[in-house]
Each structure stands twice: as C-alpha cells, then as structure tokens.
C-alpha cells in the first residue's frame, strides 16, 4: 500500500503535489477545526443560556415561595379563628341576622387590604343557612365535585390549585386551598385564598425567556406572557408531556420551533402538592449571535484559504515553470550543446541548481579543454622521450664497435699502469651504455643515481680538485619509479653553470629524502649563482610554451615531464643567491609511482 502510494505520488506533477498537500494538510484541517470551533461556541451559548435559565428558575422559585408564604401564614391563623368558626357553623333564622354577622366579620377584608399578595379570601361551608357574599359561600354540587375541593378534603395540609370554575364570580387564579375542621361541631369547611395575579405575573415579567408556573393539573397559573394564564400545558404545543416530565433540561419543539426547556418544581411550605416552574427559550435565538460570529469566521477562513490556495497555485506554477526551464537546459546539454547557459534567477534551491548547472557546464568545458591540453602534452612528452632516445641513438652508430674500442683503451691503460684513465674509460662506457638503454619507460632512483655517479666521476677526472660532490638517498626511496633522466640534467646544470666564473672548489650535493610520503629531491651547488633577473628569465623559460633547440634535454624538458607526469605542483623550483650558489628542487609523491 505504501509503495503504491509512493509510486502514485512520484507520478504526480510538482504543482499537483503542492495543491493536494495544501488541501489535505491545510484546507481540510482548518475547515474541520472551524466547524468544531463553531459547534463549540454554539454549545457554549446553549450551555450559558441553560445555566442562566436554571439560575433564573431558582430565583423565581425563591420569590414565589416568599410570595406564597403570606397566604400560608394567613391560613394558619384562620385555622384557629373563633369568629370564623362561629359564623360558618351558626344556623341563622333570618337574612337580617346573617347580614349582621357578615358585617361584623372584617378579617377577610383586613387581610386583603394589608397584603397585596392576597386578591381575595373565601370560605366554603356546608351550612344551608349561609348566603353567597363572595366570602362565605355555601356548597353546591359543582363545588363538591371539583378537583381542588376533593383534594382539600383528603388532607389537612395546604394545596395550591388554579381554580377554573364557571360560577358567576369565578376565581381563575392560583389559590391556596385548605380544609378547616370544626371538631366540636363535627363539621368542616374549605378555606380558599386567592393570589394576586398581578403580583405573581410580576415575578416573571422581567425574565429574558418565556417562563411560566403550572399547577399539578397542568393549568398555567402565571406566565411572562399573561395570555397563557389559564391555559393547560397540552394546549401550548410543547411537543412533549410536560405534566409528567421530571425536573431537568430537555430539547423539544415549542410551537414548531426547536427549543430548550428547563423544568423545576416548587413545593411551598406544608403543601400537599407542588408547582412546576417552566422556562422555554428557542435555540435559534440563543445561538443566533454565535451562528453569526461563526458564519463571519467561516467566511473569513474560507476567504483566507481561497487566497492561500491561489498563492500556492501561483507559487507551484512558478516553481514548476522554473524546473521545466532547467529541464530543457539539461536536455540541450545531454544532446551535446556545451554552450547552453541557464538564466534562472533567485537564491532558492532552484536558483542554486541553475547556478550549479552553469558551473557544471563550465567545468565540463574546462575539463574537456584540459583533456585536450593533457593529450597534447602527453603527445609532446612522448615525442620528447622519443627525441631523447633518438639523440642517444644518434650517437651510438655502432655501439658494439664503440664499447669494444673503449674496452681496448681501458685494458691498454690498465696494462700500462694508468689505473685512473682505465677507471674513467670504464665509467664512460658504463654511462654510455646506460644512456643507450634508456627508452620511453621508467627507471628507479637507484638506477638514475648510478648514471649520476658515473657522470660525476668523469667530471671529477676532468676538473680535478675544482669539483667535489656528495650523494645521499634514503633507503626507502631507492626503489621508487621515476621518469628517466630527471636528476642527471640537474647535476649537469650545477656543474656547467656552477663552475663558471668561480675559482676554487665547487661542491655539488645530491640529497634525496622520503618525508611523510613525499620524496624530496634537492641538487645544490655553491657555485657562481644566478642574478635575480636571470633567475626570473630562466623560470619563465622553463615554464613557457616555446622550446629552443639547445634546451631539449635541459631544465625545461625535466620541468615539463615532471608536471605532465605528476601535475603542476610537482615542477622544478629554483632558488639562487648570486655569488653563493644555486639549489634546484622538486618533490614527488611516493605513492605516485609504484615501488619495484
């Protein structure tokens, strides 16, 4: 799978890779994060609204409980009110007597006047001599069968009910209902204290969301929207059965709109039943601001992503275009066009590749030029070697005759006691034989120094005490291969030019040492020396391109063969002090030529 992915990726163009990478690595994650942040803010708004609603519901419960405490306390007082007990249990013989009793009893009106929470007080009794004056009401069948009356008779605790009666003067308010027993009369009645609807609604009017209070039958007893008072929860189209719903938070469609509903219960002191406090808010109202901010954020993010996508496309196009131009240059180079030049600007990697490409083309041209020059130099070296051999061969004519003649002269001198002459003739023959044996191959330092030694002995015979020489070579350097006739021309130069204009003995030292894998060759004399001007001319001549006829087997020839064989750093180095002597030196890599 991974190999297939890599293969497919390698087959894509660079700009497509950049665009796909941008979409996968930047665009999709940013959109996912944006959606997640949007959802987070939306949920935070909902959670905050729910938390606020719960706090508001708790506040309403507290305020409502305080408001309902007043009717509760009044009912506690009236439970033991003797005047009330007398007036509801007495059998009246005439209307005048009853009217006098009603006028004498002022407690209900006093409580209503003193407490704004109370809208009215009624007492229902099974005394047939009573007349309904909206405070003392005789029971009828409708009242006896009412839900709230039946519930009141079952308990001595208070009960809170919305009274939806259809009498001439209906209550239509949340009311405290409580049974009042009269044991001494073996009778009982029901006390009803109406709550001031305005006071109850006032508790909900400042709420930010739709809030209402319902009794256990589902009647709305108070609401922020007062038009809802008296309706049942089923009529309000919550989409769920709130009547039997436990307290908590739930989601539902209120009047066709997705909403969140917070439900809590309020059980007043000494109450047989509880009230439900319900707060509803539409989800869209709460998340409207969050959605607006999220929409603006998503639009901004989308705009940024689109601009970034455009920039990535432009950058990828420019990058791939530059690479295509570089590819065309490479194709031209591959076809043999060595004059191609890449003109891709910039300091990035592609610009660096362009410059490296130009350097490569330049290096190839230089290398080809160097190869041509090296080939020419090698040809010249081969020609020079052959010329050396030809010059040597030119002097041999009949080598056997020459060697036989020299041997006869040596024997003649030896017989006559001329040992010195005999030795010089032997050395001369040995030198000539070595010279004639030299070809275009290689020799060793040991063989080269044998020729040098023979040459110096012959020159010693010639100059006598005017010449003194010394040869030193490290044992490790004797078997190292070198081109032939490398040291001998330097020694010859030291004798020929060192003895000119110099009286007395001239010392020639040949020193060959092996130091850190480098062979150091030094030929030094204490002869006449060279002036700085002449030394500059000599150095320019041996390193120059032209060659004079008489210098073919000289310093220039040695210098060129060294540089052609080992490289430029290994040519001749000449130092001289006029009147004190000259030193000619060169170094060779000990690994440049194999040992014998």
Automatic annotation (TrEMBL):
Keyword tags: Cell membrane, Kinase, Membrane, Phosphoprotein, Transferase, Transmembrane, Transmembrane helix
InterPro entries with a match to the protein in the record: Bact_2-comp_sensor_kinase, HAMP_dom, HATPase_C_sf, HATPase_dom, Sig_transdc_His_kin_internal
Keyword set includes Phosphoprotein: yes
UniProt GO MF annotations: protein histidine kinase activity
Enzyme Commission code(s) on record: 2.7.13.3
UniProt topology in membrane: Multi-pass membrane protein
Keyword Transmembrane helix annotated: yes
Pfam families (alphabetical): HAMP, HATPase_c, His_kinase
Record localization: Cell membrane
Main location: membrane
Domain HAMP: 317-369
Transmembrane annotation, as ranges: 20-41, 295-318
Protein known as: Sensor histidine kinase
Taxonomic lineage of the native organism: Bacteria, Bacillati, Bacillota, Bacilli, Bacillales
């Amino acid at each position: 799978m991974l190999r297939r992915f890599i293969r497919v990726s390698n087959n894509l163009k660079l700009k497509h890779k950049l665009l796909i990478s941008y979409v996968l690595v930047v665009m999709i994650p940013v959109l996912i994060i944006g959606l997640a942040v949007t959802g987070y803010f939306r949920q935070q708004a909902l959670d905050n609204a729910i938390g606020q609603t719960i706090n508001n519901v708790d506040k309403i419960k507290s305020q409502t409980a305080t408001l309902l405490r007043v009717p509760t306390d009044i009912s506690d007082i009236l439970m033991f009110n003797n005047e009330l007990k007398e007036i509801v249990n007495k059998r009246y013989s005439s209307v005048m007597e009853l009217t006098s009793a009603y006028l004498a009893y002022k407690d209900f009106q006093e409580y209503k006047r003193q407490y704004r929470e109370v809208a009215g007080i009624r007492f229902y009794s099974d005394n047939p001599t009573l007349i309904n004056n909206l405070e003392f009401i005789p029971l009828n069948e409708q009242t006896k069968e009412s839900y709230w009356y039946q519930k009141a008779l079952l308990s001595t605790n208070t009960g809170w009910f919305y009274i939806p009666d259809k009498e001439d003067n209906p209550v239509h308010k949340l009311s405290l209902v409580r049974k009042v027993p009269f044991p001494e009369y073996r009778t009982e009645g029901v006390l009803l204290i109406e709550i001031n609807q305005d006071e109850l609604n006032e508790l909900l009017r400042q709420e930010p969301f739709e809030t209402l209070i319902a009794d256990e039958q589902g009647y709305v007893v108070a609401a922020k929207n007062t038009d809802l008072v008296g309706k049942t929860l089923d009529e309000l189209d919550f989409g769920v059965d709130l009547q039997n719903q436990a307290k908590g938070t739930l989601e539902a469609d209120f009047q066709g709109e997705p909403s969140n509903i917070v439900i809590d219960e309020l059980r007043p002191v000494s109450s047989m039943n509880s009230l439900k406090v319900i707060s509803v808010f539409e989800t869209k109202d709460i998340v409207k601001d969050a959605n607006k901010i999220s929409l603006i954020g998503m639009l901004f993010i989308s705009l940024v992503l689109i601009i970034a996508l455009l920039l990535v496309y432009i950058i990828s196009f420019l990058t791939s275009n530059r690479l295509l131009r570089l590819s065309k240059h490479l194709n031209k180079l591959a076809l043999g066009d060595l004059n191609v030049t890449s003109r891709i600007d910039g300091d990035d990697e592609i610009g660096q590749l362009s410059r490296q490409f130009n350097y490569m083309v330049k290096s190839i041209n230089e290398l080809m030029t160097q190869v041509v020059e090296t080939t020419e130099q090698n040809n010249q070296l081969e020609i020079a070697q052959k010329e050396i051999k030809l010059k040597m061969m030119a002097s041999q004519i009949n080598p056997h005759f020459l060697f036989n003649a020299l041997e006869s002269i040596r024997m003649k001198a030896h017989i006559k006691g001329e040992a010195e002459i005999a030795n010089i003739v032997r050395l001369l023959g040995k030198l000539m034989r070595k010279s004639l044996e030299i070809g275009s191959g290689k020799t060793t330092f040991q063989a080269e120094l044998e020729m040098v030694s023979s040459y110096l002995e012959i020159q010693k015979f010639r100059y006598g005490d005017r010449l003194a020489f010394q040869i030193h070579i490290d044992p490790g350097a004797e078997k190292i291969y070198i081109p032939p006739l490398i040291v001998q021309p330097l020694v010859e130069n030291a004798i020929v030019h060192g003895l000119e204009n110099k009286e007395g003995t001239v010392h020639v030292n040949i020193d060959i040492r092996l130091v850190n894998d480098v062979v150091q060759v030094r030929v030094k004399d204490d002869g006449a020396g060279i002036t700085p001007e002449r030394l500059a001319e000599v150095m320019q001549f041996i390193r120059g391109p032209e060659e004079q006829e008489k210098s073919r087997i000289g310093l220039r020839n040695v210098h060129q063969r060294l540089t052609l064989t080992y490289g430029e750093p290994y040519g001749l180095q000449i130092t001289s002090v006029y009147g004190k002597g000259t030193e000619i030196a060169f170094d060779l890599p000990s690994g440049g030529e194999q040992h014998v």
